[in-house]
Amino acid sequence: SIYYTKNHRSFRNFSVHNQDQFVHIEGTATEHPTDTIRVGFSGVDVGYVLDLVNFHAVEFDGKAQGVAYLSQPFNQLDAKATVKVDSFLFENGRMGTLNAQVHWDNTQKHIVIDALANDGKDTVTDIQGYVAPGSPGEINLGINARGTHIDFLHSFTSSFLESIEGHSHGKLNVVGPLNAINLVGKIAVNG
To answer: Residue 118's pLDDT is what?
Structure first.
């Protein structure tokens, strides 16, 4: 059930299921920091969610599971999540399994991401930084490539490279306003 009044939302055993996919919401959100909503989810299509919120500055995909907590959405939003994304894709490039800690920075008004993508013993990618939604919005994600598949670079190099394959080591930043993102840094490529 859902209970809704001004500055008060309560969810009691609210679930949406479709085969192996589900979202389950439980809890109460008010102006009080001790009131919290818990959102558990599994099998959620990341690309579909980003389509719903019309976020296309960079493309992410995969199947997500995890838990998120939300409190004080009416005044001082506090939100955090632990997320695992199987078959994670960044700019249509394979990254393996992503494990992330994500939280809302209320002072800076952006989403902070601390993640590790693992696609095997010698293919690991650290991702740390933030995405500031809104208009115009901004992104600053540091990528520490340790054997990372480089197919994600194709979207940045497609104007002069037909295809790109291999593994990379080095550091990159996906940075800039959401409507004009740049990729900066240095990597060594094998492939």
So the answer is: 96
Contact of 116 with 127, CB cutoff 8 Å: yes
Give 36's DSSP letter. Answer: -
From the CB of residue 33, how many other CB atoms can be counted at a distance below 10 Å?
Answer: 11
- Statement: residue 151 has pLDDT above 90: no
How far is the C-alpha of 107 from the C-alpha of 104, rounded, in Å? 9
Q: Where are the beta strands (DSSP E) in the chain?
A: 2-5, 8-18, 21-29, 37-45, 60-71, 78-90, 93-105, 110-118, 124-132, 138-149, 167-177, 182-190
Residue 7 φ/ψ, nearest 5 degrees: 55, 30
Predicted TM-score (pTM) of this structure: 0.89
